[in-house]
Amino acid sequence: MRSIVAMLLAGLLAAAVPARADTELTFYYPIAVGGPLTKVIDGLARDFEKEHPGIKVNPIYAGNYDDARIKALAALKAGQPAQISVLYSIDLYELIEQDVIVPWDDVATSAEDKAWLKAFYPALMANGIYKGKVYGIPFQRSTIVLYWNKDAFKEAGLNPDEPPANWKEMAGMAAKLVKKDASGNVQRWGVMVPSTGYPYWMFQAFSRQNGMDLMNKEGNRTHFAHPDVIAALQYWRDLGAKHKVMPEGTIEWGTLRQQFTEGKTAMMWHTTGNLTAVKNSAKFAFGVAMLPTSKQRGSPTGGGNFYMFKKTTPEERKAALAFVKWMTTPERTADWSIATGYVGTRADAYEAGKLKEYAAEFPQAVVARDQLKFATAELATFQTGRVRKLLDDAIQAALTGQKTPPAALKAAQSEADRLLKPYR
Amino acid sequence: MKHVYGWLLLTPAAILLVGFTHYPAAATLWDSLFSTGTVVRPSRFVAFENYAALADDPIFWQVLGNNLWFALGTIPTSMAIAMLMAIWVNDRLPARALARMAYFTPTVLPMIAVANLWLFFYTPQIGLLDQVGAALFGARSHNWLGDPDTVLACTMVMVVWKEAGFFMIFYLAALQSLAPELEEAAKMEGASRWYFFRRVTFPLLMPTTLFVLVNATINSFKLVDHLFILTKGGPDNASSLLLYYIYQVAFSFFDTAYASTLTVILLLLLAGLALVQFQLVEKRVHYR
Q1: Based on the structure, what is the number of domains in chain B?
Q2: B250 at A interface, C-beta within 8 A
Q3: Spatial distance between the Cα atoms of B4 and A131, rounded to a whole number of angstroms
Q4: CATH number for the domain including B212?
């Protein structure tokens, strides 16, 4: 009897300890656009395992960007850490402040690895670098583009192949595109820019176009009260209040796509991540263009990066590097971009193979990439959640006419100064 | 021996209550007396500094005000509608089961699904509300959720629609337990329907009313799911509620200490309200 128990125990122990010491990688990832993407990620992980025996990858879908950050940090605190994760690119300062991530430069030491770190578009790296070290590898990334309804342009007597090039043209064209019924009700607006959910993101495009970024590289200073920034918000407000080409009040991010595809607005600013959805539901010819200029072109980038956590063994870090390098090869980048609508993260992905063919038959797909030259980092600072909300509230207060743009932005700036002082 | 038996019976519930209700409440109170720790600046005891910050926080006062309006707007309306609907479907009418079901359906739907539906009702131009308004009254398109003057009322209407059916079920159950002799006696005495309702039905429903009132009050502070979909608290916090603000502070700002402080206020508020309700209303409640 006793020997049987002993055997059973031995068997259990043997089962608990794997025969070969596999390196296991757990990673959390968020999904913020439509489509069966968990399947795509799981498939990628299985393919990687086939090519790399000895490394096991457990991808864990963790909801939206906020959920993913909360889950990854909770797992770290609970002692069941993930080794890597795809998290919001703008979580960088928060993760550094919590002291949970390490730079990729620490493991990417060979000449080939260093070349890999340089392969991505610089605009996409801007949110991933702190004090000269690379913490975030771009993976699912987007920018803002202008969608326009070519049929509406024709109807209004405009050239359907010529989107507005600058702010003045956009306001002018939009005025021609506004359509009213006999009793003066607006049937179609000229342009809509969403102002719920991520107002700060849209505003970054306005202020960059007007020649000013909203924060410094160190993430400890904001420029909300700069005259160029105030003028940018004034322009946004004027589209509704003065030019009457956009509805007053805030415009819902989630329903704007339908308003555009229903023909209720002739132009909209939206993420390139909506491209496939618009393509599938628009019953009219539409174009995609870079955002208009004021003093220069500009759009922020957005989306998720790969981070590596601090609580990892040297073997795990090596395996993590192998995995992330594999996930970001030009071929995989092309597949991922076509499946999602996200920007291909590196130039060589567009130079050959599937993405090149896709772009040839659907040229709208490369506008976001071409705009990357003019792109800027997404708003990220220390205390990023609070600072972002200060700006969001200021923008919404101005757009709804509760405060003037200078008053709203000056108040937000002085509050941001108070929050960021300890980090200077 | 009897004592041991009794305690044994109580233990499972007691463990759950202490573990998931009382301990977290006490821990929240304790946490609210410390600053939020980061690697750079570890947490330290700050006594009531967080409460002082709260008194100076304009957003806190705004969401608290919003929440009071929200409670005032949703509780009496949803209860009155619930009572009306219950009396209506308690009568003998054709397809009674269907009518009851129809009133109850909104309750069965998850709040997130409801909010997604109503998001499209409220969408300017293409939304149901604007379409119906334009077709029937020739009304102009209104940016319902984008206007700080209308956004809170819009969320209230949706919540009333969702909650009333739930409260109706309680009233319906209470109505069916009323003795039919009462109505027959009233009829013989020649009492009008309104008189009968005012002097007999309504007083007899008081225990249910108390129960529903407590629940509705708690719900008006607890229900924030719709904000994630509809407005994210905007524009400029015009539709934000206390619990949603707590979520933002805790999980978007990572300020756990301040979130604890806000939670303590919410707990005190709810405990106070519950006490008042039990004290005041119980006097007018007729238990059998």
Answers
A1: 1
A2: no
A3: 65
A4: 1.10.3720.10
Element (H, E) at A226: none
CATH code of the domain in which A262 resides? 3.40.190.10
Residues A394 and A273 in one domain: yes
Q: Are strands A299-309 and A84-88 parallel, antiparallel or unpaired?
A: antiparallel
Does residue B185 or residue A16 have the better pLDDT?
B185
B1 in a structural domain: no
Q: Inspect the interface and report whether the beta carbons of A255 and B123 lie closer than 8 Å.
A: yes
**Count of domains for chain A:** 2
Note whether B253 contacts A99, CB cutoff 8 Å.
no
Phi, psi of A191 (to 5 degrees): -150, 150
Mean pLDDT confidence for A169-178? 94
Residue showing tokens 């771009």: A138
Question: Does residue A171 sit in the same domain as residue A265?
Answer: yes
Is residue A122 predicted with pLDDT exceeding 80? Answer: yes
- Nearest Cβ partner for A97 among B39, B123, B252: B39
Residues of A in contact with B235 (CB under 8 A): 195-196, 249-250, 396-397, 399-400
pLDDT tens for residues A255-288?
898 899 999 999 999 988 788 788 888 999 999 9
A38 touches B: beta carbon within 8 Å: no
Say whether both A191 and A308 belong to one domain. no
Q: Domain range for residue B249?
A: 59-282
Contacts of B140 in chain A (CB under 8 A): 185
**Structural domain boundaries, residue A210:** 143-301+380-423
pLDDT of residue A13: 45
Under a CB-based contact definition with an 8 Å cutoff, are residues B89 and B96 in contact? yes
The per-residue pLDDT for A363 is 86
Nearest CB partner across the interface for A259, out of B41, B125, B254? B125
Residue B9 in domain: no
Does residue B253 form part of some domain? yes
Same domain for A70 and A113: yes
Going by pLDDT thresholds of 50, 70 and 90, the confidence category of residue A15 is very low
Residues A281 and A323 in one domain: no
Cα–Cα distance for residue pair B269/A71, rounded to 1 Å: 30
* Confidence at residue B36, expressed as pLDDT on a 0 to 100 scale: 81
pLDDT tens profile B127-154: 888 888 888 887 778 888 888 999 999 9
Report residue A4's pLDDT band, with 50, 70 and 90 as the boundaries.
low
For chain A, say whether B239 makes contact (Cβ under 8 Å).
no
- Interface residue A248 vs chain B (CB under 8 A): yes
Task: Tell me the per-residue pLDDT of B155-178, one tens digit each, with 9 for 90 and over.
Answer: 999 999 999 999 999 999 999 888
